[in-house]
Amino acid sequence: MESEDFAAAEAELQKVSEKGVGVLCKMKIDMEELQGFVASTNQRVDEMEQRQVELERRTAELERRTAELETKTAEQVTRTTELTRRADRTDESIDDLKVKSDKTKVERAVEASKKAEEASKKAEEASKVSQDCAEVCVGSAEWIADELAKVREEDAVDEGDATPQSPPPNPNAPPFGAARPVSPDDDRKPPAYESPPAYKSP
C-alpha cells in the first residue's frame, strides 16, 4: 500500500515538474520577447532622440537664418531710406539750379537791356556831337572865306586894282570856332551820321 502511494505521489510530482518546466519555458520565451520589445522600444527612443536633436539643430539654423534675413531686411530698408533722401536732395538741387539758371537769365537780360540802353544813349550823344562838329566846321569855313575875301580886297586896294569891292562883312557872323546857326531854308546839311551797329545780347 505504501509503495502504491509513493508511486502515485512520484507520478503526481512528475506531472507537476513537467508543468513547472513548461511554465518556466513559457516564461523564458515571454521574457525573451519582452527583452526584444524593450530593445526595439529603446532603439525607437534613441531614433526619436536623434530626430529631436536634428529637429532642434534645424530649428536653431532656421532661427539663425531668420535673424540674418531680418538684419538684411533692416539694412535694405536703411539703404532705401538713404537712397530716397539722396533722391530728394538731388531733386532739390535740380530745382535750385533751375531757379538760379532762371535768375541768371533774368539778370543777363536786364544787364543786356541796360547795355543796349547805354549804347543807344551813347549813339545819340555821338550823333549830337557829330552834328555840332559839322555845324562848327561849316561856320568856320564861312568865316575863313569871309576873311580871305577881306584880305584879297585889301590887297587889291593896295595894288590900285579896280577889282570891285566885295560886300562888307556880316556883323552877325559868328566868331571863329563858333557854331553857325542853321536856317530852316538852308539846304546845306552836315554829312549823315552812321549809327553804330545795334547791341546784341549775349
UniProtKB/TrEMBL annotation:
<feature type="region of interest" description="Disordered">
    <location>
        <begin position="149"/>
        <end position="202"/>
    </location>
</feature>
<feature type="compositionally biased region" description="Pro residues">
    <location>
        <begin position="165"/>
        <end position="174"/>
    </location>
</feature>
<feature type="region of interest" description="Disordered">
    <location>
        <begin position="62"/>
        <end position="132"/>
    </location>
</feature>
<protein>
    <recommendedName>
        <fullName>Tropomyosin</fullName>
    </recommendedName>
</protein>
<feature type="compositionally biased region" description="Basic and acidic residues">
    <location>
        <begin position="62"/>
        <end position="73"/>
    </location>
</feature>
<feature type="compositionally biased region" description="Basic and acidic residues">
    <location>
        <begin position="82"/>
        <end position="127"/>
    </location>
</feature>
